[in-house]
Amino acid sequence: MIKRLVAITASITLSYVVTGVRPTQAAIVTYGFDASLNTGALQGTKFPGTFSYDNSEQTGIGQEFISLKTLDFSVLGTTFTKADLSQGGQVIISNGNVEDFTAAFFSPFNIAFGFGGPGIIGYNAPGVNASGEGVYTIRAETVPEPTDIYGGPIALGFGWLMKRKLKALKAG
């Protein structure tokens, strides 16, 4: 009886580790973006950034606008975050797929940015008398799940202990 229980437990544990099965649940989803300014005095300026949103608000049907949880990037020595938003601050999702996001930053910065769909940036830097446009592309960020980081080794350790226990039972 104990042998069967150990074998079943080890099989279930191993299948979890191998397949990475996780319960479906809402999560904060993070995306990155790569931006470049293509016209005006700041032409050629490139910068990356990240944004996130809570997918529990997402239905996966039609076009959806969900508030950003975070937004972070730096350009020309100025750091922009969600706390600095003047307008916008939404991710645009179409049939479950992230397409764009909106965000506009104005004063007290020496540069104003507006992100809007599809992948267009407008900017104005009054201090250097510059304005122009740019583009951005969105990329999925891979963030390891805590279950993968901690759960796998714990499950393997549990399986190893069960195997030792089984050997001890056979020997005794």
Short description:
By secondary structure, this protein is an alpha+beta fold.
Largest sheet data: 8 strands, antiparallel, barrel
Query: Element order, helices and strands?
Result: HEEEEEEEEEH
- Which bin fits the share of residues in helices? 25-40%
Strand order of the largest sheet: 1-2-3-5-6-7-8-9
What shape does the CA trace take? elongated
What is the number of E strands?
9
Strand % is 35-45%
- Radius of gyration, in Å, reads 24 Å
Task: Give the low-confidence spans.
Answer: 19-24
Question: What is the helix tally?
Answer: 2
Keywords:
172 residues, alpha+beta, 9 strands, 44% strand
Description:
The protein has 172 residues and is α+β, with helices and mostly antiparallel strands. Helix content is 26%, strand content 44%. The protein has two helices and nine strands, in the order αβββββββββα. It has helices spanning 2-19, 146-171; strands at residues 28-37, 46-54, 63-75, 78-81, 87-94, 97-105, 112-116, 120-125, 130-140. The chain has an eight-stranded antiparallel β-barrel. β1 and β2 (46-54) form a beta hairpin. α1 (2-19) runs antiparallel to α2 (146-171). The radius of gyration is 24 Å and the shape is elongated. The model is unreliable at 19-24 (pLDDT under 50).
